[in-house]
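Input (Fluoride-specific ion channel FluC):
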Amino acid sequence: MNLDWIKVLAVGTGGFVGAAGRYLLSLFTQSQFPDSSFPYGTALVNLLGCLLIGFLAGLFEMKSWVNPEFRLFIFVGILGGFTTFSTFSHETFLLWENSKLLLSFLNLGLQVVLGLFFVWLGYQVVRLF
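Output:
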């Protein structure tokens, strides 16, 4: 296996930016709902990430931006570090496990359905220009 260290650095640097941004935004959002069991912070991060990936993928496609290092930095690094499906899954499981079935299903529906909608919306915004 031949590693391109520039690409590895692009992903790693972007991952740091995305993960730090995710942590800060999620922490802030969740602090606005201190008495709630619902994972508002993760929901916001995942939905915003869906909107951003739709918008940026549409923009990259429309503008034919193909610089592989830049694409890796944005999509795999920043957005990969920013969104987290594993945390979403774990939090949904914990809601279910703690007999908060309605919140569990609300979390599933909100993030999956609205996430797909926001990806579509991001593409549509780019197509307006």
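The chain is about 80% helix and 0% strand.
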